[in-house]
Amino acid sequence: MSESTTYDAVIIGAGVIGCAIALDLARRGLRTLNVDRGPAPGHGSTSWSAAIIRPYYSTTDGTALAFEAHFAWQNWEEYLGYRPESALHYHEIGCLVLEAAENRKLAGTRSIMREVGVPFTNVATSDLPEWLPGADLRQFSPARRIDDPQFGETAGDPITGAMFCPTGGYISDPQLATAQIAGAVEHAGGHFRFNDTVLAIHQSAGRITGLTCEKSGLIHTPIIINAAGPASRWVNELAGAHHPDQISTRPMRQEVATVPMPQAPQGPSLRYVLTDADCGIYMRPEQSGHLLIGSLEPACDTLEYLDSEDYETSLTEQWTNQVWRAALRFPSLGIPNIAQGFAALYDVSEDWIPVYDRSDIEGYFTAIGTSGNQFKNAPLVGQLMGHLIESVANGADHDRSPLQFRLPATGRAIDLAAFSRLRPINRASSFSVLG
After folding, report:
1. What stretches pass through the bilayer (predicted)?
2. Is 431 inside a domain boundary?
3. pTM for this one?
4. Greatest CA span in the chain, whole angstroms?
5. H runs (alpha helix) in 191-271
6. Which of 2, 59, 175, 254 has its CA 20 to 30 A from that of 50?
7. CATH code, 60
8. What is the DSSP string of 262-302?
9. Would the pLDDT of 1 be above 70?
10. CA nearest 138: which of 261, 264, 262, 279?
């Protein structure tokens, strides 16, 4: 039996964001298709996500969205609407955020958390040794490269305190999570085509009419959603939706290190997700007794933006710098002779805040700039985009009168102008993976 060539909506990309959008649209009664170059759901940048679940962002709307998403991960089977064969483990271990000069000692973060209603506990300097056994709790900021003569120097002043958020942790397998959302899409009647590349996007009189794929040929649809991750910039160019005066995205190369977990007499030195702006890194426990280390993009690190999707997959001195900064915090950390971890591409916007929006072309929508910090939000992004797409299709002028999206668990409304392509660069952003 031949495959259909007509759908109500086509999502370009089958990562965690693309699958979540397809699920919501399918539940709204649309006949959906996800097209992806990869062999299966979540095999692109999603598979390289650190998959951290945390509620703290630099903006109120971003924080509200992340806090809401926590409930979807907590009630995973309810979100999916079916019981998958393999259990997905949400390690709800909480997140510890250290105060630092770089985050203004969390004054702004705490204010936003209180406004949104996110629970957190303040941790005093005197209590930090119990939270981080075996850690060196002196301040080392600003973060430095290891070839800096002042690397590792400290005046001896202690970290001034921290904040602990219980509604957080990490997902053990981001690819499995995406596959299970894709399973829910299929239960809802959605379709997928893998190992296929979009060659052209078609429009007539300013309206989307379809797309042409390398294997599938011409597909008719009035709605296309760009959820292509690091390829999103070029998908926008195919559609003629790339405008220099609007928020745009481009791929950035990132490295994440995996090392053996440092140990203290009390056990593992780290039992939580740790955001350490003082050392310019984040860390979380990894399975099989390991520690995962990523960068918070401190000023000393050069951000590696790319003009194509071709990138060096081998680990470099960036891995070494991240691991050595982690060793400042945990002196017992063993630095292996062979670098382990991964290099990957993230799709980031100018202010690291995603674009969830319509476009100047009728029927063309974007969910881009999501890599690095939006995995956790995917279940709610699907619903947000479904609300946006349905509202615009019914005549809402989102550009003139930005839509509100009411979060189902907390009941809070968020302003979708915060994710508009037309917004100015948000100077309140962390300009890092923290969003």
Report:
1. 6-26
2. no
3. 0.97
4. 72
5. 232-239
6. 59
7. 3.50.50.60
8. PEETTEES--SEEEETTTTEEEEEETTTEEEEEE---TTSP
9. no
10. 279
Dist CA 97 CA 122 (whole Å): 10
173-197 confidence digits (pLDDT tens): 999 999 999 999 999 999 999 999 9
Q: Which two tokens stand for residue 172?
A: 């053990």
Average pLDDT, the chain: 96
Amino acid 2: pLDDT: 56
Residue with tokens 């998958």: 84
Q: Is the dihedral of CA 40, 43, 45, 51 positive or negative?
A: positive
Looking at the structure, do residues 258 and 341 belong to the same domain, yes or no? Answer: yes
pLDDT at 371: 80
Domain housing 384 = 9-87+173-248+351-419
Which H or E run contains 260?
strand 249-260
- pLDDT for residue 279: 98
d(CA 375, CA 352): 13
* % of the chain residues with pLDDT over 90: 96
Domain at 115, CATH number: 3.30.9.10
List the structure tokens of 234: 């070029």
Tell me the per-residue pLDDT of 418-430, one tens digit each, with 9 for 90 and over: 999 999 999 989 9
Q: Kindly give the residue spans of alpha helices, DSSP state H, lying in 75-146.
A: 76-80, 107-116, 128-131
For residue 361, give the nearest of 244, 205, 190 by alpha carbon.
205
Domain boundary among 333, 349, 365: 349
Is pLDDT of 315 > 50? yes
Domain count, the chain: 2
Task: Tell me what the mean pLDDT of segment 251-271 comes to.
Answer: 95
**What are the CB-based long-range contacts (under 8 Å, 24+) for 75-80?**
76/180, 79/184, 79/379, 80/180, 80/181, 80/183, 80/184
CA nearest neighbour of 152 among 142, 136, 140: 140
Q: Are residues 333 and 259 in the same domain?
A: yes
Distant-in-sequence, close-in-space partners of 309: CB < 8 Å, separation ≥ 6: 230, 231, 251, 345
**Does residue 428 fall inside a structural domain?**
no
Cα dihedral angle (383, 385, 386, 391), rounded to 10 degrees? 130
Q: Is 321 found in the same domain as 200?
A: no
Domain membership of residue 4 (yes or no) is: no
379-413 confidence digits (pLDDT tens):
999 999 999 999 999 999 999 999 999 999 999 99
Same domain, yes or no: 261 and 333: yes
Distance between CA atoms of residues 115 and 129, nearest Å: 29
59 in a domain, yes or no? Answer: yes
Which DSSP string do the residues of 372-432 spell out, in sequence order? TT-GGGHHHHHHHHHHHHHHHHTT--TTTS--EEE-TTT--EEEGGGG-TTSPP-TTS-SS
